[in-house]
Amino acid sequence: MRSSWRCDGCAIRRVRCNGGKPCQECQKRSLACTFLRVQRKRGPKGPRVSTSEKIKQIQEDLYSAMLTSASADENSPGNSSPETIPPQHAEITHEDYIKYLDIFKERLYSVWPVVDCDELIHKLLIHEADYESYALAASLCAATIAQMRLPEHDTQEIDGGVTSSQFIEEVHRLRQLFEYREIVSIPSLLTSFFLHIFYANAEKIRSAGSLLREAIGCAFGLRMHESESYLPTYSHENQLKIRIFWILFISERTYCIQNDTPMMLQPIEYLPEVPNDETQDRKLLSAFVSLTQLFVNLDGEFARSLYGRSGKGCGSCLGYHRDEMSTAQRDLCTEKDDSDLRESQQVDIAVTRQWIRTLLWQYTVSHFPVSCNSEDPAFSSLLPAQIAKETLSTFNKFSPGAIKVHGYGMVST
């Protein structure tokens, strides 16, 4: 009812409003009478108009400030757009990359002759947004530290240096900046391979195997398993691809035999060639060619008959005869003159030769009768002892540093 309404002004002053026109009580006190005003619905009424205007003004001020800040950043010297931000980690400098790339060039290029360090360093200095080259360099530095067992490998932090773990973190960070799995290229392949070397030396065998498979998958993408892809074989690019293939082949044979996993790569008909000139590359590559020729003995069927899942127990049907085993052992006993090679290269060839002899003997003892009185050493039950003796004799001829270069593979052998 109307009489139940109250005048706001009168309610404040605790007086009764009679609703007259004009209201005498409100007029007497100079108040606005609200007795006849239509009552609004109760509940939230929303923000006041003034509040909405203030919010809108604050938003406009913030937007203007953001535009001003962005413009200042673009015009500020020393700042660059996201596409040209130097990819190196704050704790890793160009000098750090160069330091370990030089060590690789001096000590390990003969083992993995697949990276031109001078060209790679040039890319790092000229193309700061070349994430792929930086990832390759970081993986190579990490593999070098791990393979050489440098102090930077066994610690998480070192004063005045970068650890192998920091280089590995940098590789993974850089690879997230581009879709590396969609890129089929030699740098991408080699990055995965050197990551494999690092994780193998860190005794993370599953990670090492996964990365080796990743590198081999990239090689398939580059059609390295097809011999016709290497024509003409004399070109620098194809010789590099041949060396990369055989490094993957050697690494896969070693890893799969030692860890009892299937193999994917089969030998191609081309072997690495030794340059005709008398440059340093000729001496370095001659050892690599000799090593490759040793691994040709581990063809797919024979290697699988030793350890591979698909070949266990079926070695007798492969057609390896007694005379072939005898000839293979005799050829592996024949040592070539390698006095002009580096110590590390001589160790690599000598120990690999003895390792393959051991594998041949394991096959022999499973498929042929052997005896300690055998006239043919290939079928002697004492051959492993003779191999061990010759291996220890080899170690005595070389410095510990030359042996240490070969990392986890040497220990497993």
Automatic annotation (TrEMBL):
Primary subcellular site in the record, as a coarse category: nucleus
Q: Which residues cross the membrane?
A: none
For the Zn(2)-C6 fungal-type domain, which residue ranges apply? 6-35
Q: Which domain of life is it from?
A: Eukaryota
Q: Could you tell me one molecular function GO term of this UniProt entry?
A: zinc ion binding
Question: Which portions of this protein are annotated as coiled-coil regions?
Answer: none
Q: Which PANTHER family match?
A: GLUCOSE TRANSPORT TRANSCRIPTION REGULATOR RGT1-RELATED-RELATED, MALTOSE FERMENTATION REGULATORY PROTEIN MAL13-RELATED
Its recorded name reads: Zn(2)-C6 fungal-type domain-containing protein
Give the species this sequence originates from: Arthrobotrys oligospora (strain ATCC 24927 / CBS 115.81 / DSM 1491)
Q: What is the lineage of its organism?
A: Eukaryota, Fungi, Dikarya, Ascomycota, Pezizomycotina
